[in-house]
TrEMBL record:
GO terms for molecular function: oxidoreductase activity. Keywords: Oxidoreductase. Its EC number is 1.14.13.-. It is an enzyme of class 1 (oxidoreductase). Residues 4-41 form the TRASH domain. InterPro entries: Ferritin-like_SF, RNR-like, TRASH_dom, YHS_dom. SMART domains: TRASH (SM00746). It holds the Pfam family YHS. This is Copper-translocating P-type ATPase protein.
Length: 49
């Protein structure tokens, strides 16, 4: 399990939407969260650290 950086939902990496950014793969619960990440990835990556 992993967390969607956008909404915080716990998700299964095997079934989640995926997006690679700067060599790291991020997982999302829905296309909407993936879209939000694509619009401003740094906003969400900063929350991760």
């Amino acid at each position: 399990m992993t967390k969607d950086l956008v909404c915080g939902m716990d998700i299964d990496e095997k079934t989640a939407a995926k997006k690679e950014h700067n060599g790291k793969t991020y997982h999302f619960c829905s296309p909407t969260c993936q879209w939000a990440f694509e619009m401003d990835p740094e906003q969400f990556i900063q929350k991760e650290t």
